[in-house]
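User:
I would dearly like some help making sense of a protein record. Take your time, and here it is.
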Amino acid sequence: MRIPRNERLGSDSPDAAPERKCILSGEHGARSALIRLAISPDGDVLPDVNARAPGRGAWIGVSRGDLEIALAKGKLKGVLARAFKGAPLRIPEDLPERIEAALLRAATDRLGLELKAGKLLMGSDRIAEQARMGKVHWLGHAADAGEDGSRKLDQAWRVGEDAEGTGKAGVRLPLDRAALSVALGRDNVVHLALTDPAAAQRVAVPLERLLHFLGRSEKAGQESDERTAGDAAPLATT
């Protein structure tokens, strides 16, 4: 993409997590948690979810619902005009759909990379075994996964993590088993797990950003980290 003026996308300090400001809410957040928008050579405002396009960008951290409201009321056009310093631009009517598709692709691409690296487990029996041994660091369920099967794996995870009596549970993914199977090139993908903590973090980042955009407040595979035993309070939206 061609964008007027250059903007440094990296952090000034290797020890500090770079932050950006949402042009709609005014709130600051980690760069990895926000969505970057850039201008194409034709002047279209498009998602740059991997933040790789050169030049100036604009960042948003709101949900799809809030974005659609801002788009309908003309607020998005105004803040983008200021963010891009008056550069000619056009906002596609389907920008929210494009952002969701790009975020979904980023999340599934990450899962695919972990699969190729041998980090991703599939199959209830394998996952349950590793979970009970305390080796699972991330657990996910297809959107249409059966409640009984999901509960059993969640329980196995709690046993392995010595977290019985808490609300620790795998994340309900925004894809059904058919979509997961196509994305990963495997048959009947219903449950997924990661036994490598670094891989779990790599998956959690794009997945949490997608879930936030979809208006879901749960952490991506870490729902129980902020919960207590018994009736847990709902997690705050990131």
Q: What stands out?
A: The chain is about 35% helix and 15% strand. The first helix runs from residue 64 to 73.
